[in-house]
Specification:
227 residues; alpha+beta; 6 helices; globular
């Protein structure tokens, strides 16, 4: 597909297609971004890219010769905007298409803009039982986590479509951000599901045998849905 120019919103987060993302917009440059994409002629979307260097939202400075954000991101489609009297806004978005950044576009805006190429979503060849195995491992993992933490397991039904399933599992898997980014960058659903089946199987065995999780406390809080 031909390249298009879109605004970019760097985050300490990897947005997967089909996954919701609530945001609080407070920085002046991102207030302007929001006004631009929701105003007259705006298409109510922007690109989300994961921060590689640093942890602040909006960190898009260059580090040496490499940009501080990932080159593969996801379009965030705006569903709702709730403005507040202090000028900030609560925004509900959902991930749609993946893209790869081809080059920065200097259009005189205070926020980053880039020419991007939208990526296709090939399914690939999904072996019989692969999706079911990955889905079953994810459910077993979440149920075991719930028992260990004395929390009720509330699991939304997993999608049947291999592409949607691969992104839902990638979003829910107990992984640090860098590994989640690698899953986003995998070309096809079958490859992503193969990786996830291995990851989830490994984590489930680890959890059953040691009652521990080999990830950081921050990732554990995310998996458990704790603030």
């Amino acid at each position: 597909m031909a390249g298009v120019v879109i605004p970019l919103f760097p985050l300490d987060h990897v947005l997967m297609p089909g996954i919701g993302l609530p945001l609080r917009i407070f920085e002046p440059r991102y207030r302007e971004l929001l006004a631009d994409v929701t105003g007259e002629g705006g298409d109510r979307r922007f690109g989300v890219v994961s921060v590689i260097e640093g942890s602040e939202v909006g960190n898009v400075a260059l580090v040496g010769d490499a940009p501080s954000t990932a080159t593969v991101g996801t379009i965030a489609e705006i569903l709702e905007v709730e403005p507040f009297t202090d000028g900030t806004s609560a925004v509900l978005t959902v991930g749609s298409s993946r893209f790869v950044v081809e080059e920065e576009a200097d259009l005189g805006k205070p926020y980053l803009m880039a020419r991007v190429r939208m990526l296709d979503e090939p399914i690939g060849v999904v072996p019989p039982g692969l999706a079911e195995s990955a889905r079953a491992s994810a459910m077993a993992y979440n149920q075991l986590i719930a028992r260990l933490t004395r929390r009720e397991a509330e699991i939304e039904p997993y999608p049947r479509d291999p592409v949607s399933l691969s992104y839902r599992l990638a979003n829910d898997a107990p992984l640090p951000r860098a590994d989640r980014q690698r899953l986003l960058e995998i070309e096809s659903a079958d490859e992503r599901l193969r990786s996830l089946a291995r990851i989830l199987g490994r984590e489930l065995i680890l959890l059953r045998e040691t009652r521990s999780i080999a990830v950081s406390p921050a990732v554990l809080r995310e998996v458990l849905g704790l603030n």
